[in-house]
Design brief:
It is a single chain. This protein is of the alpha/beta class. It has helices at residues 12-23, 55-64, 87-107, 141-157, 179-182, 208-219, 240-249, 271-276, 295-298, and strands at residues 3-7, 27-32, 45-49, 69-72, 111-117, 163-169, 172-173, 186-187, 192-196, 202-203, 206-207, 228-232, 238-239, 256-259. Strands 3-2-1-4-5-6-12 form a 7-stranded parallel sheet, with helices on both faces. Strands 8-9-14 form a 3-stranded mixed sheet, with helices on one face. The chain is globular.
């Protein structure tokens, strides 16, 4: 079995990944500023509680334990940081990336996986599937953070034997964590859910289990043959109607109003808030129906999970 190092191990994604890896008998080295329920439960789990910027504690773990794969989840919104992204978060992420990548190179880590975001693509003019080859033009602070992380990764591993993998993940959800879904059908100003017409328009999201399957697929490939950039998301868009029904069934949304298609153009939109707040949704983008092409990722994992089978 392999030795895996996880940053941001106590976040939602980190805990799902840890559970999966331990079940497969991998040896897991984990760091996070918060503890978690895995500590002390498995001899294959070694946890260090410290801030992700604590180079003095983290570098020796990477350099002294023959790490096969490093999964860099820290400084990611859907894992462990607040959706309101500040300059301090950007600085923190850049400092962290630099020393972790450097330590991985020095230690001869075989593969490094970075959790990035589909936000890096920014706003698209057409409705063509968004492929990994499209130029990055993110407009949010979070996109800036992850574009920087990707560039630093490319520079760090370009002339090494380490295989870099960038997972550009659509907004994450599971049965209990649906804030990303909720944001696309909820008007916080009027404190109501809303739907345009019959709600047949949709958005791209990623069930956390699709992401975990993908990460496991990369980790389990001998010698880490699969490098590069991957769009990781559900294979089909999730409609607004699906979200409303899902949240209503779980009593997480109250009143829902039906609005006429076209009225989204008159809804108040805070451009500044969209730049700073990862979850803020611009209603004028409602009918763009962007779909990320996950063909490359589906060669690694089937992407079989969606809102209908996530219980």
């Amino acid at each position: 079995m392999s030795s895996i190092f996880i940053t941001g191990a106590s976040g939602m994604i980190g805990q799902y990944l840890t559970s999966s890896l331990l079940h497969k008998k991998h040896k897991v080295f984990a760091v996070d500023s918060k503890t978690n329920d895995f500590v002390g439960t498995d001899e294959n789990y070694k946890f260090t509680q410290c801030d992700i910027t604590d180079k003095a504690k983290i570098v020796p773990i990477i350099e002294n334990n023959q790490i096969d794969v490093l999964v860099h989840l820290a400084n990611s919104v859907d894992n462990d940081i607040d959706p309101l992204i500040t300059d301090a978060e950007a600085k923190r992420s850049k400092v962290t990336d630099k020393y972790i990548y450097s330590a991985a190179v020095k230690a001869g880590v075989k593969c490094v996986i970075l959790l990035s975001t589909t936000d890096v693509y920014g706003i698209q003019k057409g409705r063509e599937p968004i492929r990994e080859t499209i130029a990055e033009k993110g407009i949010t602070n979070y996109a800036d953070i992850k574009m920087t992380s990707e560039k630093l990764m490319d520079k760090a591993f370009r002339k090494t034997d380490c295989i870099p993998v960038i997972a550009r993940v659509a907004p994450i959800y599971d049965a209990e964590h649906t804030d990303n879904l909720h944001a696309h059908v909820y008007d916080s100003k009027d404190n109501v859910g809303y739907i345009f017409g019959e709600g047949d328009y949709g958005f791209s999201f990623c069930c956390v289990f699709n992401l975990i399957d993908f990460l496991n697929g990369i980790i389990n490939v001998p010698q880490g043959r699969y490098g590069g950039v991957y769009n990781v998301c559900d294979s089909k868009i999730t409609t607004a109607k699906d979200i409303i029904e899902y949240e209503k069934d779980r009593h997480r949304i109250g009143a829902v109003i039906q609005r006429a298609p076209g009225s989204e153009k008159t809804m108040l939109y805070n451009k500044g808030k969209m730049k700073n707040d990862y979850r803020y949704f611009d209603p004028t983008l409602t009918f763009h129906n962007w779909n990320y092409d996950n063909t490359r990722a589906k060669r690694i994992a089937p992407m079989r999970w969606n809102l209908t089978n996530t219980k």
